[in-house]
Amino acid sequence: MNDLAEPPAQPGDGGEHAGGDAGADIDHAGAIARLMGDGALLARVLARFRNEYRPAAARIRAALDGGDVPLALRLAHTLKGAAGLIEAVPLRRAAQALEQVLRADGADPYPHLARLERALERVLRELDAVPATVLETQDAARQAAVRMAAPARQFDDRDVLARLAGLLDDGNGDAVDLVCDAAAALTAQLGEHGYRELASLIDAFDFDGALALLKRHGAAG
């Protein structure tokens, strides 16, 4: 049992259950809107979030317990981006609050981590209520349909980076498919190592990190 007191509310934080729907841990309507109405892509994103971010809070706690604040900060930032993509507003705000505290030298992060743990637990509980086969089958069906319906596309090396940067800046889920479809063009521009790093960030739905990578390569204004 955690006896830590709830941290003070952050400016603009309407409480742990602020969001598009009162009391909603995931604003599904907002998430679909963020992904430009692509419900199948949302199913894919939710399935991957459930699989990849289940241990996120434990990893942050382990990093803090081990004195590795930079790692904890990076993990909190990545979780914030992933939570934002699925419109898990209370979790995103909890991750943002923790990130801000970690950047403030000397502040106690553990009350904020406790808040994040509770928010993540609620999101996972909601996702676990949907059978894994439903999300995974929707994802597999969508990918198969894309492969069957669309011939191999050719991408202009000069344009693909600008297009990807725009999608990332808008939080558009089409960025996920573009990174896969335009692998050759992106590798030509970023190099093999740069593309692998980009793909890893996209797989983690860290759109902010991916956009920052493009900016480092001079590919985004």
From TrEMBL:
GO terms for molecular function: protein kinase activity. Residues 1-23 are annotated as: Disordered. The keyword Phosphoprotein applies. The keyword Ligase does not apply. The modification Phosphohistidine is found at residue 77. Residues 38-130 form the HPt domain. SUPFAM superfamilies: Histidine-containing phosphotransfer domain, HPT domain. Coiled coil: none annotated. It holds the Pfam family Hpt. Keywords: Phosphoprotein, Two-component regulatory system. It comes from the Bacteria. Transmembrane segments: none annotated. Signal peptide: none annotated. GO terms for biological process: phosphorelay signal transduction system. This is Hpt domain-containing protein. It comes from Massilia forsythiae.
